[in-house]
From TrEMBL:
InterPro entries: AB_hydrolase_fold (IPR029058), GCE-like_dom (IPR054579). Its EC number is 3.4.-.-. GO terms for molecular function: hydrolase activity. The lineage of its organism: Bacteria, Pseudomonadati, Bacteroidota, Flavobacteriia, Flavobacteriales. Residues 1-21 form the signal peptide. Residues 223-373 form the 4-O-methyl-glucuronoyl methylesterase-like domain. The keyword Signal applies. This is Alpha/beta hydrolase family protein. It comes from Arenibacter antarcticus. The keyword Ribonucleoprotein does not apply. Keywords: Hydrolase, Serine esterase, Signal. It comes from the Bacteria.
Length: 421
């Protein structure tokens, strides 16, 4: 029976207010839950050696995340070609070399390309590189007029002058505050960034992203255990790494996967999938990233799957409002990156991303790092604001909101100087 419009509206408003009321922002309301031990297998065997971790426990954890959370990639797809679209040996007032490189992929009569914007410090050989996606186009991270504007689909955003899903020059430089390019270059590191919408547009439509190149006949959507957008974005980071291995100016053994928010989730999954990444930085990655799911604090699995149904694989929806039935939690995703350096960062006002849940994930992942003789998080309580822990597993919570700041980059550079030089 069809309800009258006014009753339908009332029910909708009630459901919205009920959903909002259920959002937990008070520690006293966090449900009791069990933290699954990274060093105990699904069958109850305790892991006590690196060999058992790498041959038994790590593979079963990775398979679970791959098939139940992020989705597996159905086939390996290699770079068909790469092309240097533009280069300048005197960029950033003479401090850096700039290069814009297009990677192209072809399969099943379809083509997809994405462009890496790369800044490398001059007079530095075999450069270590921070690699991460941006949200609104390569041209937004710098005032540099030579940076090309992507023609890929973009979500409409009045603040970035994006209409008709088209990026324009009006948004050039609007995200410079998130990318401390000169600090990075002055420290002797390179920066590489990609507009994430070129790999997979951030919308619930799998017709024009990288997934569509690998569909079987008559397939229009990834299978239940196949890649959502986060897995696709992680794939793109690994393809950039494929290119870096061909570039003599880059030390491909010292590439750090970086990401903020949803792209922090992608950086973590890329680091778990691809051991070539020398380190991983997750900045305010929250639910489905660094934050523990079973705490149900701030954003939850049910909410994230409702708002962004394309991010994770379809199987992940089995756990909507049923986090307790997950056999894993996000600290075990972090553990998959061991023994490589890992940095988890939170912001004090970003309660939606659950800073405490992010800290606890880093803490609970540390037992795997200790198995390798690496130093993880060695305190049980969160550090005070703006007091970073710079171990192999690093963590800080800073003042401010959901963002990337100069303070964040200063800590990342200091940490990289210690562990990745």
């Amino acid at each position: 029976m069809k309800l009258p419009v006014h009753l339908t509206l009332l029910l909708f408003l009630f459901s919205m207010s009920f959903s909002k009321a259920q959002t937990i922002y008070n520690e006293s309301e966090v449900p009791s839950f069990e933290v699954p031990d990274p060093l105990v297998t699904f069958k109850g065997k305790t892991i006590g050696t690196i060999g058992d971790w790498e041959n038994v426990r790590r593979p079963e954890l990775h398979t679970y995340f791959e098939t139940k959370v992020y989705g597996k990639i159905p086939k390996n797809l290699k770079i068909d070609s790469y092309k240097i679209l533009e280069q300048e040996d005197n960029a950033l007032n003479g401090k850096a070399n700039r290069r814009q490189v297009e990677l192209t992929f072809k399969h099943n009569d379809k083509v997809l390309s994405f462009t890496i914007l790369l800044y490398l410090p001059k007079k530095v050989e075999n450069t270590a590189v921070f690699l991460g996606y941006n949200f609104y186009g390569n041209h937004t991270i710098t005032e540099d007029e030579s940076v090309l504007i992507s023609t890929a689909w973009a979500d409409n955003n009045e603040g970035f002058d994006i209409v008709n899903n088209t990026l324009t020059a009006a948004s050039r430089g609007k995200r410079t505050h998130r990318w401390a390019i000169e600090k990075i270059i002055d420290a002797g590191y390179g920066l590489a960034t990609i507009y994430y919408g070129e790999v997979d547009p951030d919308k619930d439509d799998f017709s024009d992203g990288i997934q569509s190149l690998l569909y079987s006949k008559n397939q229009k959507h990834p299978k239940a255990d196949e890649w959502g957008s986060i897995s696709a974005w992680a794939w793109g980071l690994s393809k950039a790494m494929d290119y870096f291995e061909k570039d003599p100016e880059i030390d491909a053994a010292r590439v750090i996967a970086f990401g903020h928010s949803r792209l922090g989730k992608a950086a973590l999954w890329a680091g778990a999938n691809d051991k070539r990444f020398a380190g991983v930085i997750s900045n305010n990655s929250g639910c489905g990233g660094a934050a523990l799911s079973k705490r149900k604090f701030g954003e939850t699995i049910g909410v994230i799957n409702e708002r962004f149904p394309h991010w994770f694989c379809t199987n992940f929806k089995e756990f909507n409002n049923k986090e307790e039935t997950l056999a894993v939690d996000q600290h075990q995703l972090l553990a998959l990156i061991a023994p490589r350096p890992l940095y988890i960062a939170s912001a004090e006002e970003d309660r939606w991303a659950d800073p405490k849940g992010e800290f606890l994930s880093a803490l609970y992942a540390s037992s795997v790092y200790e198995l390798y003789g690496k130093k993880g998080i060695n305190i049980m309580d969160m550090p005070v604001v703006n007091s970073p822990i710079l171990n192999t597993v690093a963590y800080h919570i800073r003042t401010g909101k959901h963002d990337v700041t100069d303070y964040d980059w200063e800590q990342y550079i200091k940490w990289a100087d210690t562990f990745l030089r």
